[in-house]
Fold this protein.
Amino acid sequence: MQPRKIQPRRHEQTQPRRHEGTKKILQFLTLLAGAVSLSAVGQHSATNAAELVKDPAVKAALEAAKANEAQTIADQIRFCEVPAPSFKETARGEVLKRTFEQLGLQNVRVDKAGNVLGDYPGAAPRPRLVLAAHLDTVFPEGTDVKVKREGPGNNILRGPGIGDDCRGLAVLVAIVREMKKARVQTPGSITFVANVGEEGLGDLRGVKELFGTTMKDQIDRFVSIDGTGVHVTNVAVGSHRYRVTFKGPGGHSFGAFGMANPIGAMGRAIAKINEIQVPKQPKTTFNVGRVGGGTSVNSIPFDGWMEVDMRSSDPASLAAVDASFQKAVDAAVVEENQRWGKPGMITATKELVGDRPAGSTPENSAIVRSGLETATVLGFSANLGEGSTDSNLPMSLKIPAITIGGGGRGREAHALTESFDTIDSWMGTQHALLLTIALAQR
Ligand SMILES: [Zn+2]
């Protein structure tokens, strides 16, 4: 990866002085542009949510989103009861594909990675917003995915993946449904995507395919609905994950004593990794999370392995901790070989098993402001936050991107006991809906 600094967004506030004639022409052009951009939702900047909610079609869609929340919850359960471990999302993808078709999205298709796409064309193809939610879950094949209703008002849904990200999928579908029914027309276009590979070793393969091939250079704005609550994530915590394998000839612990030891080299490497200095701001971390190897207590092992995770929201800091980790492993191998006078006996291979790029979308960017303003206009409050989601990829490419919650209250994500509280969950549906319409403006 390329080490890179985050550039703060520059404000060009200063207006060049203009001649009177130029001014008149500009006034005329402004009027003309205003007339041309009149559409069913009127002329709005991407952030003018307050104006947007007065539009009759938008108003109708927002009211329906609240009124039909029971349908959204029913969809959430329906999607969740189809298993979808990362790399095995096909069955759930099929359900989403049929739903997209039934709701009348255009050009419904499945790309090479398994992402399900459907278009909601606006007056012009650009700007194009992609609204996405991920299909996959962290739960392995064979997990019981039946959703149970609990609580005094049956308001608690319990089932693996119910919030992360069946909620996102259900809200995605609710937006299509209500925009279609209310015939909301937008100047820009929207592509709805149910994507694969967000979780764990899925390693963002869905959005990597989407931005790299399927819709390369066609995405102007990206919103992922991931998880629960009403919030806006604009900082992407990136991560590098490695599996490091140390190898040597191995032998009898007594008879072959004097041989360099792969687990010895690994121990030295872990000690060095634990001494790496990282910045507190932006928070940058490392962890040796799993180790293994060896043959028996009375054998010099022929192998040892460890899994290492490093994270930061700053690409340069992530690159720096990665470089220190690489150096630690290489130096440990040399030291172990030197200790026994056996140059080259132990070797180490570092396999990159996870690469989620870091990045951020500036707080003063139009997409982040829209994310917050649409919540305010609806009477909700949304906080800014950081996370590791599908938006990591577009953020690293400097494409305006945020991740929002789908409403409700989620608990114990990634656990078999995951739950979702449906009380006032319509707020998430409304927020995502208004934001979608706001971002499909010019
Ligand atoms: Zn998720």
In short: The chain has two domains: 39-236+358-439, 238-356. The first helix runs from residue 20 to 36.
